[in-house]
Structure prediction request, 487 residues.
Amino acid sequence: MQEILKKSAMEQFKALKNKEVSALELTKASLERINDVDEKLGAFNSVTDTIALETAKKVDEKITAGEELPLLAGVPLALKDNMNLVGSKTTASSKILENFVSPYNATVTEKLLNNLIPIVGKANLDEFAMGSSNENSAFKKVHNPWNLNKVPGGSSGGSAASVAACESALALGSDTGGSIRLPASFCGIVGMKPTYGKVSRYGLIAFASSLDQIGPFSRTVEDSAALLEVISGHDPHDSTSLKLPVENYRKSLNDDIKGKKVGVVKELVAEGLAPDVDKAIQQAIETYKSLGAEVMEVSLPNIKHSIGIYYILATAECSSNLARFDGVKYGHRTKDANNLLDMYCKTRAEGFGPEVKRRIMLGTYALSSGYYDAYYKKAQQMRRIVTEDFLKAFSQVDVLIAPTCPNTAFDLGSKTEDPLAMYLTDIATIGANLAGIPAMSIPAGFDSSGMPIGLQIMAPQLAEAKMFNFAYKFEQSHDFYKHIANI
Ligand code: GLN
Prediction:
C-alpha cells in the first residue's frame, strides 16, 4: 500500500496543497488499493473510477492555477450505496434495485462534488440498511479488515471497512439505529451520526425517515469534523432539514475540558459487557478524569426499552417507505405476471431479501387497524419518554459516554439464524436516534484477540462542536487511532 493512504484525510489534503502528491496520484493510489484488497473485503458494490478521476483532474487544475482548494478536495471517499450519484448504480444492496441507475444526485453527493472530493465507489451495506453485520447484502458479505472471519458491523459495513483498510480516507454512511457507529466501533475508526436534520436526506434511499441521518466515517476526529462541515447545511429539498448555518467544528477541537462534566450511562455499563469492553470503558473514565473532567454516573431509566420502541417505529416506517418498490417505477419487475396484483406480489417476493420482508411484515402489522394503538402509538409515546430521559441527563452533564456495543465484532455467520440476537447489538446506539441527538464512536482500544473497541460519546441536540471536542481530547490522549488494520 502507498504510504500516503495511511495518512488521515486532513493530512492527505495538506499533502495535496503542498504539492507533495497530485490529486490524480492520490485517487489512483486509492483505486489501486481497492483493486488489490477488495476481493477479500467486499467493501464495494461498484467502483466509480471515471467519476473519481475526473474530479481529481479538476483538483489538479486548480492547484496548477494556484487557486484555493475547497475543504477536503482531492481526498478519496466511499459513498454508501444507498445514496444517489449520477453515473452510478444505487442498489441499496438489494436485488430489487440491482440495475437502478441514479437519476439525480443526493444533496450530500452534490456537496461532495462541489468540494471536488473524488468518489471512488459505492460501498456495500445491509439490504436497505437493515442489519448490524452487513450479512444482509443481497450481493456479498463484507469482511472485517482486522480479521476476515469477523463481521465489520452494519449496516454501513462497506463504508467502515473501506476506511479501516485505507481503501479511502473517508466514507459516508447512514445511521437509523446505529449503522454508522456500530461498524465504526467494530472496524476501529471514527463514525459520527449528526443531530437529526443537520444533514439533508434528499437522495438517500429512505429506511425509517424519522430516524435516518447521513454522517461521516474517518480515521480521526478532525477528519470527521471536517467532513461534517462539507455535508451539513439547510436543504429545501428535505422538509426536516434544519435552517441553521454551517459551523466550523475544527476550531474548538482542542478546547480545554477541565471542569466539564462527563456522564457515564449507568444502564449501558451495568451488565452484559464483554470484560475487555468493560475494561476499555473504565480506562476511558480515567482518561477523562486525567483531562480534568468531572465524571459521574447518569441514569437513562428507559433506555432498556429502546430496542422494542425502535423495532416497531423503524419497521412501521420502512413498511411505508418500501411500498414504492412495486415493479412499476423502479428497478426489478417480475417476468411472469398474470395480472397487476400478481406482478406486485411476485416482484416483491423476488426482489426483497428475508430481513427486509420480515421488517415489512412487522411494520405492516404494527400499523394495522386494531394494533396501531397498542404498538405504533405506544412506541411513539415511549420514544418521547426516552427523549426526556436524555434531556434530564443533559441537564446534569455536558456529554454522555457508553460503549458503542457491549461486545467487539463477532464471527461471520454466528448470528444470522437469530434475528433477535442481531437486534440486541443495537442496545447502546438506538437511543440517540430516538432522541435525535448527535452521537459518535471513536477507537478506545483492542480486546485480547486484537479486535477494536469503540467508545460512544453522545451530546445534546446541535452540540456537535462539544462532542467533537470531547472526542478529540480522548483521541489525542492515546494512540489507538494510529493503529491500522494489517490487510
Ligand atoms: N442495526 C439496526 C437495524 O438493523 C440499525 C440499522 C441502521 O442504522 N440503518 O435496523
